[in-house]
């Protein structure tokens, strides 16, 4: 009887955990759907809400990872529980002591005799391995576990950065995982006593007098069991429908014709593509997914838009950072070959969309991570050209950190134009930009030192001199906090995790406890 009570409460606990996990799965699928076209509109809807609420949209990948960790944890618990359960099934089937467990295990599997079995192990010589690979629950469980292991191991940062194709293809094993989850319970391996059998005799009382089940004078009869109906499909149905709708929408948008109007090869193996697409509309800081069918039919890679909404085209800058990008750049470098066909899906929303909601904005780009800020700075240039007086932002601090001097070249023209425009309008102090070179040698430093007195920087041709090394963030934040003692400062980063950690700490350190004084809000680009 004690085992019955324990099993009852364990079942209740397991059901509660299972329902909670499926709620996580549903919300996760919803957020991934919102990351598509509606993500942009959700930002607009939440535009009147607090910054804290809006910023939660930017943590959808973090939430996705937390859900994955929860799935792994509960999968491990589920498997361990089944291992103990099957061990108990096996020992009960082998038992010949006439105990309650052995009698319940001997109930017939023959459908002609009612099929009221409780133990999935039919014969004494049947192994656990045989049941695992011949039952629906066991086989789908093995498939789902293998799929989950491959998805998790290939999603590590090293694999994603170095072997993106491996990550991309193995992550789509979730289709087999979801299908397995939907049919996992069809075999009815989880069984319970029928309602009619319970009414004929109280389970607790009849369990104590199991020797009298076959006695015609006894009020207890042999219990009848039946498989519980599968429930998991109810919880995955809504996310699956949302996912299918998203895929249909993305497929429709990707099939719209994209016209490449200009191709520019910049130093440091950076390719610029300027394109047009009917009905395409964007905001600053957004990104698109790009596919090149001649390289791969299935691979879609995210790239931040570097054009401004005011321009009559949209553009991206692609740096060689893997097999796919290298093949794409190589395809566009071939002079006597036709231009490869490009498919575009998007645009999608990011944290940088909110940059004009802050009085003071701090933009930090590392390497090619400067791309979202190119869009922002271009848009500012156009706003000044049109004398837009509705611009809420009064000051921008821009930091660009690069390893080599060649990376600065493609961005120089934009910064030069901004410098000239600020001088014409008398707003020289609006943009404060700093360029940092982390990969340098004594020759570069010596050359820069000899030409330090010149009006423009010898490396970039800009009025602002290039700094060598990395920014001293404590000094930078302290200066900003002193210059804007009562402002709300938005800090935007497109760069590595280590840099994000440093900037997030500085935001907390230099934000005043008094909400009426300077407050720093950290925002990071997530793809």
From TrEMBL:
PANTHER family found in the cross-reference section: NADPH OXIDASE, NADPH OXIDASE 1
InterPro entries noted in UniProt: Cyt_b245_heavy_chain, FAD-bd_8, FAD-bd_FR_type, Fe3_Rdtase_TM_dom, Fe_red_NAD-bd_6, FNR_nucleotide-bd, RBOH/FRE, Riboflavin_synthase-like_b-brl
Residues passing through the membrane, by range: 12-31, 66-84, 130-154, 166-190
Name assigned to this protein: NADPH oxidase 1
A single Gene Ontology CC term: NADPH oxidase complex
Location of the FAD-binding FR-type domain: 247-354
Catalytic activity: NADPH + 2 O2 = 2 superoxide + NADP(+) + H(+)
Superkingdom in the source lineage: Eukaryota
UniProt keywords, alphabetically: Cell membrane, Glycoprotein, Heme, Iron, Membrane, Metal-binding, Oxidoreductase, Transmembrane, Transmembrane helix
Gene Ontology biological-process entries: defense response; superoxide anion generation
Compartments, as annotated in UniProt: Cell membrane
Recorded name of the encoding gene: NOX1
Primary site of residence: membrane
Entry membrane topology: Multi-pass membrane protein
SUPFAM superfamilies: Ferredoxin reductase-like, C-terminal NADP-linked domain, Riboflavin synthase domain-like
Any one GO MF annotation of this record: superoxide-generating NAD(P)H oxidase activity
